[in-house]
Every structure is written in C-alpha cells, then in structure tokens.
Amino acid sequence: MRRPSARNAPMPRRASSSSSTRPVRDGRRSGFGSSFFVATFGQHAGSRVAADVFPGTALRRSPRAAHERDFSTHERPASPRFQAAPRPHPADKDTTRNRVSACALAASQIDAYHIQQLRLQTESSRAARCTSNRAEAASLLYTDSPMLNVDQPTPLARALEQSYRHGFVTDIESDSLPPGLDENVVREISRRKREPAFLLKWRLAAFERWLAMAPPDWGQLRIAPIDFQAQSYYSAPKSLKDRPKSLDDVDPKLLETYEKLNVPLHERARLAGVAVDAVFDSVSVGTTFREQLAEAGVIFCSFSHAVEHHPELIERYLGTVVPPADNFYAALNSAVFSDGSFVYVPQGVRCPMELSSYFRINAQNTGQFERTLIIAEPGSHVSYLEGCTAPQRDEHQLHAAVVELIAHDDAHIKYSTVQNWYPGDANGVGGIYNFVTKRGLCAGARSRIAWTQIETGSAITWKYPSVVLRGDESSGEFHSIAVSNHCQQADTGTKMIHLGRNTRSRIVSKGISAGRAQNSYRGLVRVARTAEGARNHTQCDSLLIGPQCGAHTFPYVESARDDAVVEHEATTTRISEDRLFYCQQRGIDPQEATALIVGGFCQAVLEALPMEFALEAKALLAVSLEGAVG
C-alpha cells in the first residue's frame, strides 16, 4: 500500500478549549461568526443587503464548516469566499427590524476585498444605486410609516441632533436638611420618616461602620475627592409634607415633571399597563395600581409605606443580601437612605403587570440614596423596571443606592435598568456619580434572577449587579450595555457566586467607548467547594469609536472544584472606516451608520429588555453617542 506523503497528509484538527479567547479578525469571532448573525438578524438578512451591492445575485457563505472559515482580510483562501445564489423570493421578506439590522450586519461582515471592488465602481453607477437605496434605507429606518419622503429625517437622525433632554429643573419649594452628615442627621431622617426603633438602631450601627471605612480607590476610575459634608442628605417637596393619600392630592408641578419625562402617572397609567413608583429627590411622589395589585396579593409600594404597614417584612429581610458593612457606599446608604421601592410577591403568584420605579434628582447639592427590596416567595414571578434622570448642572451629585433581591424556591425575578443620569458636558463638567450596590440571592432551589441594564448616563458609573446562587439548580443572568462618550467613565460588571449544586450563570456584557471615555468590565465568577456541577459562560465584547477612547477587561475566576465548567470569551474591535464607507454607499450618513452598527452589536442585550424599555433604550443609545463620529 502506498504510504501518503507528509505533503498530502491531512492536518489533524486542534481541539478547542472553551476557556481560551478565540482569535479575532475585524471584530468577528472565528468559530461562529455566521451562525451568530443568522440567529440575531434572520436567515436572509445578510444575503438581501449583499444582493443590493452586487445586482442580480445574493451573497452567502461557502458551505464550509464554521471552524474552518478564514476571516483574515489579508490572507484570502484559494476558493471564492462568497458564491452566487438565487435572489430570495420577494414574498420571503424579513421584518422591518431584521432588514434594518441587516445594514449593520453587512457593514460588519463585508471584507476588504469587496470594499475595494465597491470603490472601483464608476461614479455614475454608484450615484444611481445610492439614489434608490437611500429611499429604501429611509423607509426601513422610519418605522412609523412604510412610505416616507427621503428628505424627511429618520428617528435616529433626529435623536442624534438632540442633547440631554431631561436636564430641566422643576421650580418647586423643597424642605431640605442643611449640608453635613453626623449622628443627628441620621436621627432626623429617621424621625421625618416616622420609623420604628429597630430601624433607627440599624441606621446608627451602619453610620458607625461607615465612619470607620475609607472610600475605595481600586477602580479603573479618576474620581475627584468627594466632600461628604458639603451636600444635603434629605430633600423633599414641601407639598408632600402631609403625605398625600392619592395622586389627586399631589402638586401639579410634580405631575407635570413626570409628564415631561414620559412616566405614566395619573390617567395615562391606565393605558400604559405598568405600575409605577415615582421617587422625587428623597421621597416617593406616588405609586400607581397599588390597590389592583393588592387584590392579587402583590405588595408594591414605597419603602416608607412598607416600613409603616409591613414592618415585619422589613425587619426580616433588610440587609440580608447587602449588609451595611458590605462596602463604603452601602454603609452610607444604610445610614441615610430615605425612600425607594418595596415589592413582595406571595407564593405561586405571577405578578399581573410590570412594576417600575422612576428616580428623579431635582434639588441642588443633594444626593439620592434610595433603597429597593424585592421578595419573591416560592413559585412566584415578577418583572421590575427602573429608570432615572437628573437636571443638567455644573457640579457633581452623588447617587448611592442599594438593591436587594430575594428569590425562593422556583421563583423568578427579572430586574431591568435603563440608567440615564446626567452624564456631564463634552468637557467632563458636571454629571452624576453613580455608585450603586445591587445583589440578588437565589435562596431556593430552581430559583432564577436576571439582571438587564443599559448604562448610558452619569459622569462615573461604578456598579456590579451580582447573584449569589445558593439554591440547588438555581440560575443567574447578567445582560449589560455600558456606553461611555465624551469624558464619561464606567467601571461596571457583575459577580456570580456559585454555592449550590448544578447552578448555572450566564454573563453577556457589551461595552461601547467613544470620545475620550474609558469603559471597563470587571467580572467575578466564584465556584465554591459545595457547588458540584456548576457552570458559567461569560461573553465580554468591547467596541471602540474613535482613537482617544479606551476599553479594559478585568475577568476574575475562582474555582474550588475540578468539575466546574467556566467559559470566558472576550473581543475588542472598532468601527472601521471601511464599515462606515459601506453604509455611506447605501445612502446612510456616518452618524446614522454608527447607530446601526451599535444596534447590531447590542442586539443580544436589547432583546433581553422588556418591550416597555426596549424602544427607549435604543433611542438612548443613539443620543448618548452624539458626536462620536465626525
């Protein structure tokens, strides 16, 4: 038998390792680039847009195995990378969402060879094609009407022309404590809230611990020294001093403020189908649908109302997930917190509507220190939404909140945040310091907690929503988009602590940096000796827009078991000129092309948001990247 030569012998396949980071070419992960985009944008999304580039044909991948595909732009395979295929039938049309996302797909998938081919086309044919495609692109991007004048600006284009639109100040009389923090301030806050003795004792113990602590300095952040004696720790509108019994008794100026913010209070709440707890500075303005939810057994109210009417629940659960000594800002919050939201879902109850809180800072030189506590009894389900804004000011203001989630056996909690605090101006003047502690406890078997967050605002964001997986077969999820532009800084991520058997966790983090911003992901996956069969998958992607921004990744993995499966993958890429050039050939200007590409980059996280916040989140992404290109 003829012995095969070394030249003709097949190369052995290298075994892949789930813990290693795969090589990256032009922002794509080799190994599942095609399947990832098909799952995200639809089966024919890429072929349809590519077919517009080369009339008469559609483009598809050669039928090679995913792990054999070569994504290198400077080393082309001998066989054609793309091959012609029949154009899809006109009846097989994607949805508007997939077709819009297809622009981002094609911009990220097209390689240098086809970009060069496109550049070599004649000016006349290019102009003719752009004219027709501009009309098509405009109709796809404008979702309100299928027929649109091409000169009419699209929603994304209009959004990019706007600055921070929530920076107004409500002119209202406030009752504020003088600046400074000591034991008397803590006692006065407790007196104004009419709290029981056990809570005052808890506050004073937290204050003593805070005095013995020092502000942390280990973050990838440049923080100017904070004078904790120069700000007020309590401010409330004077009109709320008598605690109005319903929204009809609330000052119209406060209701008008939330109307400007598109927060459904009063009559609009009935149409929105979302229960809202609106917090203004240090107090709750009102809570909608409280009586209707009570009929289902669900308690949804302000934290102050819960202290007054359900003190046994507060005493039992407060501080069990985030103790006062957890960190510097958690101790500060425990001492001076004034209001927030409280949710209790009884056993076997699926909350009949979305619950939501909206936090608004209005008073000058005042910090906001709300506290949120959500308890899901066995077999219950609840989805909670959170939003926030603040006025536009030249000085920094502090926001130091604490969120505690507790899920018992078979309970599910979904917590979503669209954070839109004032980020400061383009030169880094003003903005909110957002130092928040969020943690969930999967206390029971098969319980589940999912965090979803869109971080677009605040001058500095420093937070790590976490899940402690104590119950067997419990699971935790974290989906995050952190956008930093101009001089913003973000050091955010998550912690997944595996304690129970067969626990699962998943982390999907998308970081976007533009201007001179710095964006850091910091994640911890810890597997205890008791966590038999634990499994984690972490996906951390960073996108750079411009030459002066930065992206940093700090993954930490601690495993005490040999049978644990911990997977981590990370990519860093940028929006190249070739991608923008491709979109411009489709009649899309650079700013709008950036929004399209970013939308495709963030699609996996946006899909995890409830529908009520998804549209707002997409608009915020566009606005927060204003001026990132050009």
UniProtKB/TrEMBL annotation:
Any Pfam family from its record, for instance, is: SufBD_N
Output the SUPFAM superfamilies linked to this UniProt entry: Stabilizer of iron transporter SufD
Coiled-coil ranges per the record? none
Where are stretches of biased composition, namely Basic and acidic residues? 65-78
Q: Where is this region: Disordered?
A: 1-29, 60-95
> Which protein family is named in the record?
Belongs to the iron-sulfur cluster assembly SufBD family.
Q: What name is this protein filed under? A: ABC transporter
Q: What is the lineage of its organism?
A: Bacteria, Pseudomonadati, Pseudomonadota, Betaproteobacteria, Burkholderiales
